[in-house]
Amino acid sequence: MVIRVVSIGDGGKKHMEILRKLSLGARSLLTENHIVPLWGEAQFDDITFSISPYVASNMDECYGFWAQNSVGDIVDMILQALEVGPHLYMVVPPGSD
After folding, report:
1. Which residues pair with 44 in a beta bridge?
2. pTM value surpassing 0.85
3. What is the pLDDT of residues 20-30, one digit of tens each?
4. DSSP state of 16
5. Can you tell me the distance from the alpha carbon of 52 to that of 41, in angstroms, rounded to the nearest whole number?
6. Which of 13, 41, 72, 95 has the fewest beta carbons closer than 10 A?
7. Bigger pLDDT: 19 or 58?
């Protein structure tokens, strides 16, 4: 489990709002959504914490010692990063500050 400070006072409120939209409900189940689920929130005075699962591992455990950077691996990482763009624009249109 990861407990992380998301907002203090008004700073970070928009981030928390976006996090709620992306990681709760039906949107969190979309294949192109690479956001970790939000298990809960905690409040202490004006500080908001997010509670999420810990999803990280040592790369040696994931790949062993055989994995090498290849063009395919790099392209796959770039494609995953670019998948977020259109999905994020559905949630937070540009200029909606």
Report:
1. 47
2. no
3. 887 887 767 76
4. H
5. 9
6. 95
7. 19
